[in-house]
Amino acid sequence: MRVFENKSVxxxxxxxxxxxxxxxxxxxxxxxxxxxxAGSPAAAHALADETQSVAIYADSTDREAVISTVxxxxxxxxxxxxxxxxxxxxxxxxxxxxxDRLFKINIHAPYHASVEAAxxxxxxxxxxxxxxxxxxxxxxxxxxAYAASKSALQGMxxxxxxxxxxxxxxxxxxxxxxxxxxxxxxxxxxxxMLHSFMAIKxxxxxxxxxxMVAWLAGPEAGFVTGAMHTIDGAFGA
Length: 237
Ligand code: NDP
Description:
Blueprint: E1 8-12, H1 17-28, E2 32-37, H2 41-51, E3 54-57, H3 63-72, E4 78-81, H4 96-120, E5 126-130, H5 144-164, E6 170-176, H6 191-196, H7 206-217, E7 227-231
Parallel strand pairs: 1-2, 1-4, 2-3, 4-5, 5-6, 6-7
Helix pairs in contact: 1-7, 3-4, 4-5
The structure holds NADPH dihydro-nicotinamide-adenine-dinucleotide phosphate (NDP).
């Protein structure tokens, strides 16, 4: 029997990159997987066909869409909140609406999704949010809002771990360093600068992040909660 056979997994933001690797991993391990997408319907439908999972349009900027998606597809055994964006540039020049959009996707959606999922989640349930090593370390200018959003997830997980722990539900943050995706390609212009901060001088692979998520969601991680799990080639060390 596969590890997640008979388990229901919901991934918010699963169409591409790290989220798609997480969808593939849970599907390969036997789970019934549902995932959301917003801007990439073609990629989402192709992934759903490939993995026999269900793709649902739900924009993470829309609180009601996030909450109703979690409610209508629950109760789930595992919730993964992966959807996240970056807005980069000189802080004094960035459009404040863009910053508020980032906070909605990167902070508000994880909070409301986690709370909604926990309402009916069974004992042994798992909530995993994809943060970033930038929640711990922000070594370059132009990314303050992104870093703030990822630091916010740390307090969120610590607090919600207290709320949900008595019911046997864990909540953890996975904090990747540079990972090869559309958002941060391994051959992109930032690569040498990013690798200069690292002990293992390469981008990580989305599958490596998915492995950590799968372990946290699995039966061996029941005593792990309210914690940050960094996977970054020592970017933050
Ligand atoms: P990508 O840009 O490659 O993919 C982002 C994913 O999030 C897509 O599936 C996208 O779906 C989804 N998404 C974005 N906005 C929304 C929205 N409004 N509503 C629903 N879904 C949305 O990013 P990565 O895979 O690189 O990043 C995934 C997560 O990992 C993010 O939280 C990011 O901050 C974090 N991370 C990434 C790192 C990296 O180096 N790559 C490093 C550290 C953290 P769609 O296209 O359908 O809108």
